[in-house]
């Protein structure tokens, strides 16, 4: 049983190749062990329309994508996702486990592309109306290691084709957000073996679940 009826909103973040997909399965197994009812979802995406917007965002194309167009597409997908999936789940007491959310926008469009954080914050206020993740697990890894891991994959998407400097800016934007909100963020050192990374994630989740689930 939960300490109250509200579902909790957990997000997972990090730069390329940090192991989000790998560790999402592990997080799910911990939630299941504690019998938490949850929905697994992702951004950009999570609904049919938002998945179409994801495809538009990730596809490599000849036409240069304007930074503000990219930002608006990200928030259009998020608005749909919030309305169709995230809010309804939280309102009926389900937890939501989301692969990336608005911290990714501050990191990629803010840090990476150099867009004004105030503009992002305005869109965040309009679209989220105060809703924020309750817990954000940030997997952190030196950029070169993450890129080497990610680039073993067959095809690179529009973001993965960026230069190393882009990902350095993304990483530092994530770390400075984590530093400014230590209550919400748990930073996990993702440079160790999978077992070491998962032990840290288990520690974070066990503490959080103990505080947020009543017996
Ligand atoms: N984006 C944005 O710009 N703005 C926004 O607001 C949002 C997103 C929400 C899609 O994200 C893109 O959208 C993203 C930013 C942008 N940029 N890109 N690309 P995504 O989350 O779908 O894509 P991704 O970042 O590429 O994540 P991924 O596919 O889930 O991969 P991953 O989490 O980086 O890693 P993985 O597949 O779990 O692991 C990579 C490899 O490393 C794999 O072979 C593993 O077996 C291996 N691995 C994992 N952990 C370890 C350890 N500990 N040791 C050794 N090897 C490991």
Question: Can you give me a brief rundown of this structure?
Answer:
With 215 residues, this protein is an alpha/beta fold. 54% of the residues lie in helices and 13% in strands.
Instruction: Give the C-alpha Rg.
Output: 17 Å
SS elements, strand count: 5
Q: How far is the first residue's CA from the last residue's CA?
A: 6 Å
- Contiguous low-pLDDT stretches (5 residues minimum) are none
The CATH class is identified as Alpha Beta
Which of globular, elongated, flat, extended, rod-shaped describes the shape? globular
Reported by name, the CATH topology is Rossmann fold
Query: How many separate domains make up the residues?
Result: 1
- Estimate what percentage of residues fall within beta strands: 5-15%
Helix vs. strand class: alpha/beta
> Which strand order spans the largest sheet, edge to edge or round the barrel?
2-3-1-4-5
The small-molecule ligands in this entry are:
ligand Z5A
Helix content: 40-55%
Number of helices, where a helix is a run of at least 4 consecutive DSSP H or I residues: 8
């Amino acid at each position: 049983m939960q300490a109250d009826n509200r579902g909790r909103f957990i997000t997972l973040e990090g730069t390329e190749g940090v192991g989000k997909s790998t560790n999402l399965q592990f997080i799910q197994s911990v939630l299941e062990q504690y019998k938490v009812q949850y929905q697994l979802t992702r951004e950009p995406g999570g609904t049919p329309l938002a998945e179409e917007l994801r495809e538009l965002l990730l596809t490599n194309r000849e036409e240069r994508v304007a930074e503000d167009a990219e930002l608006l597409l990200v928030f259009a997908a998020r608005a749909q996702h919030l309305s169709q999936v995230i809010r309804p789940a939280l309102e009926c007491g389900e937890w939501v486990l989301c692969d990336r959310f608005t911290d990714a926008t501050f990191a990629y469009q803010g840090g990476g592309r150099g867009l004004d954080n105030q503009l992002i914050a305005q869109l965040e206020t309009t679209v989220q109306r105060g809703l924020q993740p309750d817990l954000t697990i940030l997997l952190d890894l030196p950029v070169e290691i993450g890129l080497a891991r990610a680039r073993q994959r067959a095809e690179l998407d529009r973001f993965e084709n960026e230069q190393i400097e882009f990902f350095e800016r993304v990483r530092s934007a994530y770390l400075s957000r984590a530093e400014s909100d230590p209550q919400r963020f748990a930073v996990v050192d993702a440079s160790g073996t999978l077992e070491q990374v998962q032990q840290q994630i288990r520690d974070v989740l066990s503490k959080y679940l103990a505080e947020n689930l009543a017996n």
